[in-house]
C-alpha cells in the first residue's frame, strides 16, 4: 500500500510539473506567528477561488489564560480580500507548541476540520493523561474528517494527496497539493534539520522513513515548513524550500545519512530538548480538534496541568 501510494504521489506530481500549464500549481500564502515560530498557510486554486487553511494558530497567553484571535484574524482578512471560499481546515498533526484556531475559523469562514486517522491513538494517550471525561470520545469525531495514507481529494481544480508521515507523532500527515507539499513537523529548513521524535508515540526510526518517503518525490516540488526557529548564522525567517535542496543540504537528513546515523543523532539531541512552552495547553485543546474543554458549572472553561506526569 505504502509503496503504491508513494509511486502514485511521485507520478502525480511529475505529471503536474510536466503539464506546466499552472493548472495544478496552487497559490500559497504564509502567515508567521513569532510567539510559537509557527507557519500557517492558505492554499488556493486561482481558477475557482476554493481554498484550504493549514495549521492555523489561536493566540494564547499562558500567564493570563486568555485566548485571542490576532493570528486567525489575519487569515480571515486575507481570505476576504482574495474572495476565497474555504473548503478545508487542515491539520498536519496535533501540535504541541500552539493551539489550533480551526474551530474559530470554521465559525467565520466555513470548511471542514481534518487531520490524519491515527489521531485516535493520540486522543487515547492524551485523553488518559488529562483524565478527560466521557464527553471526550477519543474516536476522532471531534474532527469533521480523518484522512488515511493515500487518500485523494480536490480543492477546486487542485489535486490533493495525503501521505502518512509518522515519527514526530504517530498521526502526522503531509498534504501534497499540486506541486506544493505541506510537511508539518517532519523536516525543517535544511540548516535546521528535523523535528524531535520523543513525544508519546514518536519514533526516530519512523521519522527517518517518513522523511525518505517525502524526499523521494520529484526534486522540484515546493516544500512548506510548519516552523522556523532561526538557526545560528541566519537572520531571516524562512518557510519554503524544495526536495532537491533538502536532499543536498538538510543537516539531519541529506542524501547519504543512514537510518542508524539519523536515529543516534536524533535520540541524543532529543535528550537535551526542553518541553515546548505551550505543550500542556496545546495538546488538551488540539486533541479536541481545537475545541476548548467544556465549560464547568460556573460557566468557565479550564485547562488542566498534570503534575509530575509528563
Ligand atoms: Fe509538532
Automatic annotation (TrEMBL):
* Keyword tags: Hydrolase, Metal-binding
Q: Which InterPro entries does the entry mention?
A: Metallo-B-lactamas, Mito_Persulfide_Diox, POD-like_MBL-fold, RibonucZ/Hydroxyglut_hydro
**Any one Gene Ontology molecular-function term assigned to this protein's record:** metal ion binding
Q: Does the keyword Metal-binding apply?
A: yes
One of its Pfam families is Lactamase_B
Q: Which SMART domains did the record assign?
A: Lactamase_B (SM00849)
Gene Ontology biological-process annotations = glutathione metabolic process; hydrogen sulfide metabolic process
Q: Does the keyword Metal-binding apply?
A: yes
| Highest taxon listed in the record's lineage | Bacteria
Metallo-beta-lactamase domain residues are 37-227
* Protein name in the entry: MBL fold metallo-hydrolase
Species annotation: Sphingorhabdus lutea
Amino acid at each position: 500500500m505504502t509503496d503504491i501510494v508513494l509511486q502514485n504521489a511521485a507520478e502525480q506530481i511529475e505529471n503536474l510539473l510536466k503539464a506546466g500549464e499552472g493548472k495544478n500549481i496552487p497559490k500559497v500564502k504564509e502567515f508567521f506567528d513569532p510567539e510559537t515560530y509557527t507557519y500557517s498557510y492558505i492554499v488556493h486554486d486561482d481558477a475557482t477561488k476554493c481554498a484550504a487553511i493549514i495549521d492555523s494558530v489561536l493566540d494564547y497567553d499562558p500567564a493570563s489564560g486568555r485566548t485571542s484571535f490576532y493570528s486567525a484574524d489575519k487569515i480571515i482578512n486575507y481570505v476576504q480580500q482574495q474572495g476565497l471560499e474555504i473548503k478545508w481546515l487542515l491539520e498536519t498533526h496535533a501540535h504541541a507548541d500552539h493551539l489550533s484556531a480551526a474551530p474559530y475559523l470554521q465559525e467565520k469562514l466555513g470548511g471542514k476540520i481534518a487531520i490524519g486517522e491515527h489521531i485516535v491513538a493520540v486522543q487515547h494517550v492524551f485523553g488518559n493523561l488529562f483524565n478527560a471525561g466521557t464527553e471526550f470520545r477519543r474516536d476522532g469525531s471531534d474532527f469533521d474528517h480523518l484522512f488515511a495514507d493515500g487518500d485523494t481529494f480536490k480543492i477546486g481544480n487542485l489535486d490533493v494527496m495525503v501521505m502518512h508521515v509518522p515519527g514526530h507523532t504517530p498521526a502526522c500527515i503531509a498534504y501534497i497539493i499540486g506541486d506544493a507539499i505541506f510537511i508539518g513537523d517532519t523536516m525543517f529548513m535544511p540548516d535546521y534539520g528535523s523535528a524531535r521524535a520523543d513525544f508519546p508515540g514518536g519514533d526516530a526510526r519512523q521519522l527517518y522513513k517518513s522523511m525518505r518517503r517525502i524526499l523521494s518525490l520529484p526534486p522540484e516540488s515546493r516544500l512548506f515548513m510548519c516552523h522556523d526557529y532561526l538557526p545560528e548564522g541566519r537572520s531571516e525567517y524562512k518557510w519554503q524550500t524544495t526536495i532537491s535542496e533538502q536532499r543536498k543540504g538538510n543537516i539531519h537528513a541529506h542524501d547519504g545519512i543512514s537510518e542508524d546515523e539519523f536515529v543516534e543523532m536524533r535520540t541524543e539531541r532529543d535528550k537535551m530538548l526542553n518541553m515546548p512552552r505551550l505543550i500542556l495547553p496545546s495538546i488538551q485543546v488540539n486533541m479536541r480538534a481545537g475545541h476548548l474543554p467544556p465549560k464547568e458549572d460556573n460557566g468557565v472553561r479550564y485547562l488542566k496541568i498534570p503534575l509530575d506526569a509528563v
